[in-house]
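Hi there. Long-time user, first ticket. I'm pasting a complex I've been working with (about 1400 residues overall). I'd like to know whether the download I got is complete or cut off, because the file seemed smaller than I expected. Thanks.
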Amino acid sequence: MQQKIHFECDYTEGAHPKILKRFMETNMEQTVGYGEDPYCQKAAELIRGLCKKGEAAVHFLVGGTQANLTVISALLRPHQAAVCVETGHINVHETGAIEAVGHKVISVSGKNGKLTAEDVERVYRLHWEDATHEHMPQPKLVYISNPTEIGTIYTKAELEALRAVCDRCGLYLFLDGARLGYGLAAEDNDLDLESIAANCDVFYIGGTKMGALFGEAVVICNPELQEDFRYLIKQKGGMLAKGRLLGIQFLELLQDGLYFDLGEHAVKLAQKLREGLLNAGYKMQDSTTNQQFVIVSDEELKKIEEKYCVSYIERIGEDQNVIRICTSWATTEENVEQFLRDAEQIKKAL
Amino acid sequence: MQQKIHFECDYTEGAHPKILKRFMETNMEQTVGYGEDPYCQKAAELIRGLCKKGEAAVHFLVGGTQANLTVISALLRPHQAAVCVETGHINVHETGAIEAVGHKVISVSGKNGKLTAEDVERVYRLHWEDATHEHMPQPKLVYISNPTEIGTIYTKAELEALRAVCDRCGLYLFLDGARLGYGLAAEDNDLDLESIAANCDVFYIGGTKMGALFGEAVVICNPELQEDFRYLIKQKGGMLAKGRLLGIQFLELLQDGLYFDLGEHAVKLAQKLREGLLNAGYKMQDSTTNQQFVIVSDEELKKIEEKYCVSYIERIGEDQNVIRICTSWATTEENVEQFLRDAEQIKKAL
Amino acid sequence: MQQKIHFECDYTEGAHPKILKRFMETNMEQTVGYGEDPYCQKAAELIRGLCKKGEAAVHFLVGGTQANLTVISALLRPHQAAVCVETGHINVHETGAIEAVGHKVISVSGKNGKLTAEDVERVYRLHWEDATHEHMPQPKLVYISNPTEIGTIYTKAELEALRAVCDRCGLYLFLDGARLGYGLAAEDNDLDLESIAANCDVFYIGGTKMGALFGEAVVICNPELQEDFRYLIKQKGGMLAKGRLLGIQFLELLQDGLYFDLGEHAVKLAQKLREGLLNAGYKMQDSTTNQQFVIVSDEELKKIEEKYCVSYIERIGEDQNVIRICTSWATTEENVEQFLRDAEQIKKAL
Amino acid sequence: MQQKIHFECDYTEGAHPKILKRFMETNMEQTVGYGEDPYCQKAAELIRGLCKKGEAAVHFLVGGTQANLTVISALLRPHQAAVCVETGHINVHETGAIEAVGHKVISVSGKNGKLTAEDVERVYRLHWEDATHEHMPQPKLVYISNPTEIGTIYTKAELEALRAVCDRCGLYLFLDGARLGYGLAAEDNDLDLESIAANCDVFYIGGTKMGALFGEAVVICNPELQEDFRYLIKQKGGMLAKGRLLGIQFLELLQDGLYFDLGEHAVKLAQKLREGLLNAGYKMQDSTTNQQFVIVSDEELKKIEEKYCVSYIERIGEDQNVIRICTSWATTEENVEQFLRDAEQIKKAL
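Hi, the file is complete. Here it is re-exported in full:
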């Protein structure tokens, strides 16, 4: 049986070869464990520099759900809640990890997968203007993903507006950057690590989907939220014994800009896919990043799935479906072109 | 300053005099604690009889939030979730009590404050048909309130439909009966304790809002869900040392039908209020129970609040508001008539 | 069958008659719910005055386990732990309520049921001097009971020493006063509400075991720990709808010193029991409060249990047992004398 | 500055070269994520075969704390507790991870770091014979580590005795095998994967300390405990996106016996260390595995630490200390010999 080509997500391959090479070179070195080794220290220092945030605390975790639940557990008191859009990862795809550490996720519909400052203000007012607010979870943390779960990105103005409303309302702003590099590479992006660090209390730079074997670099910009974070990492099962593996990976990704190059590679191919599919007559949701959402009929889907793995998102209308295709740091131009040729043929044939 | 008349809820007075009298009579008796006394045993037996459910386990808890969180914590594994309507008490008015014991509350819009069998089926399918269902909380328990938080009631047919879908899908059905007596007294009601017990895995008979000082009688109909429930009560802080206070109250309420009489009293007065207000020209949401939801202008609200306490629910449209007024076992005909006279005058004056 | 006389605990009767009388008098008054009524406000003010602690926040909860879990949940971050003696109520008799809200209870053996300042210092050092302290729960709160679970009491000097070590180590001091009135009435007691409030961050005045139907008055002396406490009460299921029942009870108990009189009554009878039993030849553990721990042989125990309910504590040696007998606000001199006569006879007969 | 030689733990290096080599070879393959790839499937099948347990479910997690909290959370209801020895990893070195998922850890002193069947029986009886057992956490799971945290191992007879008591008492037996390979290589060991699987409900084969970069293979032998385990992994943040990394590592370790060879290598060097140190006049705790506990004076410790990293365990007596030195799959004979030469000299010099 022929192997299908995977476009369903951005973590189907291993790691960028530079990372494995570095693992080989450092393999027999002895270091202390649990993220207190020189590699993690250097990587943290590097990230503080890139963020121009000397007082930031940087911690390396293995995965995104772990990062989300550890950060939120560290920041909130038991009666406090996180606010996010309905499609937010913590709201739909983490098996209730946030609730399992005790906190309600208050979801709002948002716009294009994004939370607006008005959404936040509304949730805040709804809570505090109610005479019985003590009977409701208290909104305290704003969770956003950039890029979002549907491939859109926040502008600098939008992020600043969220910061402003958080300041007015005494809320924390937490940005899930599991796919951050793909957002930064979008042609309509005007954010960078510095502006993100300037506006968020906490955010993370995703490695798993960006060429690392695994790893998310959590940056706690707000010094008031840094205390005892390592206890939380350990308690939640996120403290990697051979922590240096995380430091080494982020050093490789960030010290010479590899992270940003990989982001650009994926986004360039995603846009090639996008244009090709639009030209072929497919309808698509807006996205300038590496996730592309295509509307296909049942018939088209069946044909596509003969050769490709894609993510099924949802059914719309009578016989139409939304599917997601992703490029990544590892996607080849060749596979993209083949997909486009096949998609074009499928469209024509029907 | 003149005392305002309270219509904002159904727990502004103490207890039905019979209960206090019985407390006096039994006060110096010595009994064992924690709900293992003869009064609790008799009350439990009485309830099993009324429900025609000999194998049911009956436990007495102090309040509704406590009952909800204890039951749900006892029934679900960590990855499982409760399904309820958006207006459901556990979803909006318990400060995240369910999330605090680790479970997500999956809310759906419902219809007239009620969950339909179709809603449940849809949530179930959405979960299990998703290839990555392990990344989402697993719906396992259906939570409904009867009467609902907006005063509507379930019909027997609706309850049976919910039971049927729960059976098909392997879900538990849990009915919050904090105001059960007011639902059973509604003129369009066709449920009784027996049919409720026949269809629910767990439900409770609310005392706090029905003439008791406090207390909810939790009935676990499904024998498979009864094991070790007393541990949960103790752990969650709900095990009353002088547990007999609960047994005594439910005996007084249920042994001669007082509970049902009190329900009828309140509902009769609520319908009198309803008709009077409609006649006076007010618009009202549908409700055949003791909670009535009236639409009033800002001006009208201001006038009403000069003499009465009411619950503010929400703003609708430009200058209209929904308020809630409740009758209870303790409401006097006199207060109802006075309210109606004032409301009529306010309407006329504008 | 003849009713046995209960000495097994201090909550076998109802409430002091003054309380029931006041319930009757106020029964049909209408008040707002959830502890925001005038009775609770007056009772809180009264307690602040008795404690000479104008800035204290006072909250009324229904029971002791509820008070313990709510306070500890409100004060600690997820990685922090409570320190207490092995016999501490939270360590052994609350079905893991503290663990269920996420916190480890670090137990030390203590001395006479009491935690010493040295114990606390040792636990603190053991934690912070360990290079891998992040791998262990962080001690942050010291939990003591006064009187202790074995009837002993803290002296003012001991309490001040605990305060001092807590100050040095940045720990909170929390005193469980479920039986506080019986401690204050001990002849060797030199504490009062004022000195307790001056030394503790949080403590509570127990009502359930001291003549109330139920109720514990939580006093949060440290203003930094007061924020949002009502959310926690609601979330943990401890917010009584008819909250005034708690305010009324504490007013009755505290406004004319009834609370202290009841304590003295019980302790006087306990000491009478103690002396009588010692004279009759029984061995007893030291206790100057209302709980008395008697050592009895199997044979003696069997005889005693024919007419009395007592608490079985533990087996010691070959055929000896420790039992607990309690007096309370409701114990009669007559019952005490009868018990002594019987105990004397039993001893003689063997 | 000269690099110190690390003996403080068994995870100071990376992975066995075969693993990295295999990562390189498979790096650009595309597979599905989250542990559902062919490598994980093959590794699971291999483990089922080695355990002669065809019905076992095998899941791959990243680390030990994660494995412990996920398993225990999956197996216990909220009021149930784990029983372990005082030195047990879940009791002292996981920052309260088990309590953070809601469960008390009941610790007993044990013998040589091991839990005996008598210990378990005693805890069980203590609970169930108490009239108020509902006021205490219910013991339900027995947690043991093999080798233990102090280097000792269970015999087959001991494990079978634990199984028998668990069967009698309705308890689950869970074995933490973080260092399993070092236990199996001990000269006095009579266990193997088959006998472990035959006696435990759940256990895991540790990879992190045995030559993997990371990874623990959880084997759920008892089919009744297998349901929905993947939900728990996801919720607790333990589901690795590129799950195949775990499958690949366990395939390399287990398919040709490498795992057992590495265990033997470490244990052989540990015994060499042990004999050398004993000959040099050091006192040592009993251990036949890769962790060796040496008693050293303050002076000796200072000298040793000039060139070596060791784990400080505790102070004993006036000026004596217990330190831990570990060998591992990666330890060189050369380093062991150098350490022995230095230790001998230090002893002589004093």
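A couple of notes from our side: The domain at 17-255 of chain D is CATH 3.40.640.10 (Aspartate Aminotransferase; domain 2). The longest helix of chain D spans residues 258-279.
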